[in-house]
């Protein structure tokens, strides 16, 4: 028998049967993961963006005084409305686009915004492959800033080649510890990581507020909670000189994403992570150790989010203040979902969100349309990504396997 | 009720599941519908039960063309289905389960419990299917639960019963009781479609037999006109050897010694209660038993994933209890897991990845933590060729293969390793006859090469065909092993927990005490 034969039709039929025959439901989480990782196509992602922008346009039109006024005499002179609407939306999205991509300064700002998002995105994407939901990016981000910062401004007198890597390493460790706590709780006691990572976020936020008022962190000449400044030898250098804010942290983030991809696709650890994620029971029978994977993956993920924290501290902010994480940890979840939970997709999604953020600021300055619109756009994109069925029915897109799956969905029994 | 299907064709995108199928069941007749997995039996029955619309052809009940828009219509038309997996509420009583959905009520929606129980009792008397209406489902043995499923269909006035592999979960004795009940129903005019892949059962109970192959009718016949070999040939389209050819075993030294093994299941109950067994090189010991009598836990203990509370498992004198599953695997214990889909494979992984699922981090498939994809692909191409695994490519997702080919991957994976002993649980569960034949041959060849094999199976035929010695597991304890050939009926009684009261080894020799 040649192996290049197509499978006989009954083979396909039965494979579907086999899935349907399984008594145990794979669980909504597994289905959601499949939907995110395998179910998306570039077309669907694109359509999600288009739909979000279209709804955003409606919001812009309705929120603008001038366009709303033309609506009052819409039936008399509809042209006025369309002209005003076109102008408002075009102006807003034009400003958004120019702010994100119009010129080297805009590009630089986009990359600056994308940098922490790549790392916090990876912090969600990696564990998601093992069906672990890491909501703790925010806390891990802070863990990285705190421990990394401690080395960054606490240690002095080292040359940059030692001080900077040491600071980044300390940052990674800070988040890895936070992630590991959630992982070991899951492995040892079965505590669900969604709960523990959310709780750890609160702990880390409050811990930051507290530490900023201790002598260890607080800037000596200030009464308010603000940390000392990171030493020059621990600061990530700028990529293109003083005119542009983009720093070497962006290069680091991209390299880390590529390393994460390599780890998932080429290493034995990645093989084990994916096997545990898809079928922990079979993984156990195959001699793997799901419990070890749980804490290891959460520790690595924590370290990734933490790198985002220390990179943001060392490359952009220079000091820690209350609210330092500013939702960047949570935005990582969105970025990972948009990036189909793959490391390279995360880079693309982070660039998109970075562009929206950088462009949004420009839009706010140019057209007085609130930066909140960007948040709304991000939220809409995520809704459409997380619910692809919505986009499929809206645009009449059929999935490849839809008909086959639908056909057996109602009949769970087999001959 | 007479049911007739004329020219039924059902297409799915890219696949024709049923092509021009004609099928007739007369009133008061048992029709056995046989075919390999994926032959289209389930699709055909889904059409009959109203779950699918046929693309072509029609379904006639008592010569009237009928269309169903769902199971509700089919039930109303008098079609009842007994599913392979029971659709019963475990904490409800028999009567409550039977009337569920069509409960008799006394005003304001109050259940008329007494009335329900009376009608259930009357129903079970009429059809001679005795069952206590007050009994709670979860306390009943499987055979009785199935009886409740049948009564459920009859309560809804079913005149045509579809029974989907009803004997898969029964002991031989329970199967006999079921056949008696089926014959009684037939005599009262109920028509039955009996879906099975066990040829012997089709020959025993059916009036007529229809064979499906590749979605088409391969032929209609009657038990009088045919025999097992002929039916098997019709099913797979070629001659099949149902008996495994093999030389007598030449057992060598003890390889695996199990002493007083006690295993706790995940609910904390003692599931394996002190099992002793010696497995020698060059022999196959086959363990029979009805599902749920401790075999799963026994096999899990041999895999190192169950909680062993007592006893020992020694491989060539090395204690395996307490070792991590990986250490047991690497010590040379080959494992074919009981539940392929849940335990033996990752459906989303490719065929190649599944072939190294338990050697993923060992040389030569990995070096210093890096997967050696070229070596893995080489292995995959070799195994796909050697085991005749039908797959479009070695990179195809395992989940897209048929069950038989998936099982070949699992078996090939184990034979590709350096093994001392093979523990095969249900090595041919749910796969087609052709693959069964092939896997059996490989297992016997492995034995002939001087290795020890332990087969654990709920299929008595498989146990009889493979075992050089046969043991029976019931209620967590092991009887035997007995030297083959063994008396089939005696094994059946042991499976039901009844002392057969006669020699088990068919030649009449006494029970073999476990070697020490």
Lay out the secondary structure.
The complex is a heterodimer of chains A (415) and B (516).
Chain A: H1 9-21, H2 28-37, H3 42-63, H4 65-72, H5 78-101, H6 104-129, H7 137-154, H8 160-189, H9 193-211, H10 248-266, H11 268-278, H12 280-285, H13 290-317, H14 328-338, H15 343-367, H16 372-386, H17 388-395, H18 402-409
Helix pairs in contact in A: 3-5, 3-16, 3-17, 4-5, 5-6, 5-15, 6-10, 6-13, 6-14, 6-15, 7-8, 7-9, 7-13, 7-14, 8-9, 8-13, 10-11, 10-13, 10-15, 14-15, 15-16, 16-17
Chain B: E1 3-12, E2 15-25, E3 30-34, H1 41-48, E4 56-61, E5 64-66, H2 71-76, E6 79-82, H3 94-99, E7 105-106, E8 110-111, H4 113-126, H5 142-155, E9 160-164, H6 172-187, E10 191-196, H7 199-205, E11 208-213, E12 216-221, H8 228-236, E13 254-264, E14 270-280, E15 284-288, H9 295-303, E16 307-315, E17 318-319, H10 325-330, E18 333-336, H11 340-344, H12 351-355, E19 366-367, E20 370-371, H13 373-386, H14 403-415, E21 421-425, H15 433-448, E22 452-457, H16 460-466, E23 469-474, E24 477-483, H17 488-495
Parallel strand pairs in B: 3-10, 3-11, 6-9, 9-10, 15-22, 15-23, 18-21, 21-22
Antiparallel strand pairs in B: 1-2, 1-4, 4-5, 7-8, 11-12, 13-14, 13-16, 16-17, 19-20, 23-24
Helix pairs in contact in B: 14-15
């Amino acid at each position: 028998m040649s192996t290049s034969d197509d499978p006989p039709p009954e083979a396909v039929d039965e494979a579907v049967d086999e899935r349907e025959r399984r008594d145990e439901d794979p669980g909504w989480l597994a289905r959601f993961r499949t939907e995110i990782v395998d179910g998306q196509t570039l077309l669907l992602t694109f359509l999600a963006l288009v739909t979000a922008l279209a709804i955003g346009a409606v919001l812009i039109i309705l929120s603008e005084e001038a366009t709303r006024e033309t609506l009052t005499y819409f039936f008399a002179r509809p042209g006025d409305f369309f002209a005003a609407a076109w102008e408002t939306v075009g102006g807003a999205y034009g400003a958004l686009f120019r702010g994100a991509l119009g010129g080297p300064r805009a590009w630089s700002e986009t990359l600056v915004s994308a940098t922490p998002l790549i790392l916090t995105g990876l912090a969600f994407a990696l564990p998601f492959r093992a069906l672990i939901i890491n909501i703790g990016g925010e806390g891990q981000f802070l863990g990285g800033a705190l421990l990394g910062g401690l080395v960054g401004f606490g240690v002095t007198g080292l040359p940059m080649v030692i001080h900077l890597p040491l600071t980044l390493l300390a940052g990674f460790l800070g988040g890895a510890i936070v992630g590991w706590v959630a992982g070991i709780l899951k492995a040892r006691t079965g505590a669900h990581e969604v709960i523990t990572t959310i709780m750890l976020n609160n702990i880390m936020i409050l811990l930051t507020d507290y530490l900023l008022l201790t002598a260890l962190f607080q800037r000596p000449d200030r009464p308010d909670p603000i940390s000392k400044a990171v030493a020059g030898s621990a600061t990530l250098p700028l990529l293109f000189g003083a005119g542009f804010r983009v720093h070497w942290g962006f290069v680091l983030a991209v390299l880390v994403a590529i390393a994460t991809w390599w780890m998932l696709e080429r290493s034995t650890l990645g093989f084990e992570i994916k096997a545990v994620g898809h079928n922990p029971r079979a993984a156990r029978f195959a001699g793997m150790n799901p419990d070890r994977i749980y804490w290891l993956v959460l520790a690595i993920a924590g370290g990734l989010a933490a790198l985002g924290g220390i990179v943001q501290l060392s490359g952009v902010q220079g000091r820690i203040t209350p609210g330092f994480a500013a939702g960047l940890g949570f935005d990582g979840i969105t970025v990972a979902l948009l990036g189909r939970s793959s490391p390279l997709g995360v880079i693309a999604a982070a660039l998109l969100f970075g562009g929206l953020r950088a462009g949004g600021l420009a839009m706010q300055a140019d057209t007085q349309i609130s930066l909140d619109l960007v948040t709304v756009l991000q939220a809409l994109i995520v809704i459409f990504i997380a619910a692809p069925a919505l986009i499929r029915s809206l645009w009449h897109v059929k999935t490849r396997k839809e008909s086959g799956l639908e056909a057996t969905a109602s009949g769970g029994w087999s001959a | 009720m007479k049911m007739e299907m004329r020219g039924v064709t059902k297409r799915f995108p890219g696949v024709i599941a049923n092509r021009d199928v004609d099928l007739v069941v007369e009133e008061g007749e048992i029709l056995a519908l046989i075919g390999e997995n994926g032959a289209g039996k389930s699709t055909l029955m889904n059409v009959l039960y109203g779950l699918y619309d046929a693309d072509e052809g029609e379904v006639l009940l008592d010569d009237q063309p009928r269309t169903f828009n769902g199971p509700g219509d089919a039930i109303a038309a008098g079609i009842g289905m007994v599913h392979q997996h029971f659709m019963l509420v475990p904490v409800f009583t028999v009567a409550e389960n039977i009337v569920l959905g069509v409960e008799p009520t006394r005003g304001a929606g109050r259940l008329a419990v007494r009335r329900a129980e009376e009608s259930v009792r009357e129903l079970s008397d009429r059809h001679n299917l005795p069952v206590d209406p007050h009994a709670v489902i979860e306390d009943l043995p499987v055979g009785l639960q199935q009886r409740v499923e049948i009564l459920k269909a009859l309560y809804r006035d079913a005149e045509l019963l579809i029974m989907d592999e009803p004997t898969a979960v029964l002991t031989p004795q329970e199967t006999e009781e079921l056949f008696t009940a089926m014959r009684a129903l037939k005599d009262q005019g109920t028509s039955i479609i009996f879906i099975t892949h066990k040829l012997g059962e089709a020959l025993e109970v059916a009036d007529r037999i229809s064979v499906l192959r590749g979605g088409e009718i391969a032929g209609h016949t009657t038990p009088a006109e045919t025999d097992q070999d002929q039916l098997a040939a019709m099913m797979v389209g070629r001659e099949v050897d149902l008996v495994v050819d093999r030389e007598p075993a030449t057992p060598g030294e003890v390889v695996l010694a199990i002493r007083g093994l006690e295993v706790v299941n995940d609910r904390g109950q003692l599931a394996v209660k002190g099992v002793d067994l010696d497995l020698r090189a060059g022999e196959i010991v086959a363990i029979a038993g009805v599902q749920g009598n401790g075999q799963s836990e026994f096999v899990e203990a041999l895999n190192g994933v169950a909680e062993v509370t007592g006893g020992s498992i020694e491989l060539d004198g090395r204690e395996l209890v307490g070792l991590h599953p990986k250490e047991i695997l690497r010590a040379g214990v080959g494992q074919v897991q009981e539940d392929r889909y849940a335990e033996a494979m990752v459906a989303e992984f490719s065929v190649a990845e599944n072939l190294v699922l338990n050697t993923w981090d060992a040389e030569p498939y990995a070096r210093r933590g890096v997967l050696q994809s070229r070596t893995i692909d080489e292995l995959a191409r070799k195994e796909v060729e050697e085991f005749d695994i039908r797959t479009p490519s070695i990179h195809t997702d395992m989940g897209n293969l048929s069950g038989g080919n998936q099982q070949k991957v699992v078996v090939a994976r184990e034979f590709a390793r350096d093994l001392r002993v093979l523990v095969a649980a249900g090595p041919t569960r749910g796969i087609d006859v052709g693959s069964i034949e092939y896997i059996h041959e490989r297992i016997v060849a492995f034995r002939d090469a001087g290795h020890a094999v332990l087969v654990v199976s709920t299929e008595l035929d498989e146990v009889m065909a493979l075992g050089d010695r046969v043991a029976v597991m019931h209620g967590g304890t092991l009887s035997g092993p007995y030297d083959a050939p063994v008396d089939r009926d005696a094994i059946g009684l042991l499976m039901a927990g009844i002392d057969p009261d006669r020699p088990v080894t068919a030649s009449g020799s006494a029970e073999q005490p476990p070697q020490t």
